């Protein structure tokens, strides 16, 4: 069972959370006319074997969005922070 240390609520089982996607993807500017930039933002994702930054929302608890660095091979979590404080 994957356990995530919520900064507000403490350690909780992962089924209290909802996966929110890759936290390393940067959104293009709203007025960016490049269709390739929008294509990459919407559809192109890496599938790393190793450390990966992800968004998770604590839907059953405080409802905060978190940025979690998780190793996809072992599910070991290296860090958890509020998503609004992380910039990538
Ligand atoms: Zn929480």
UniProtKB/TrEMBL annotation:
GO terms for biological process: tetrahydrofolate metabolic process. It comes from the Bacteria. GO terms for molecular function: sarcosine oxidase activity. InterPro entries: SoxD (IPR006279), SoxD_sf (IPR038561). This is Sarcosine oxidase subunit delta.
């Amino acid at each position: 069972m994957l356990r995530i240390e919520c900064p507000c609520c403490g350690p909780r089982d992962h089924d209290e959370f909802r996966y929110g996607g890759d936290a390393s993807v940067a959104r293009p500017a709203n007025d960016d006319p490049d269709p390739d930039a929008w294509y990459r933002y919407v559809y192109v994702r890496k599938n790393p074997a190793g450390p990966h930054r992800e968004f998770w929302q604590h839907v059953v608890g405080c409802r905060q969005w978190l940025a979690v660095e998780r190793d996809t091979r072992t599910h070991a979590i290296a860090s958890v922070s509020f998503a609004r404080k992380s910039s990538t």
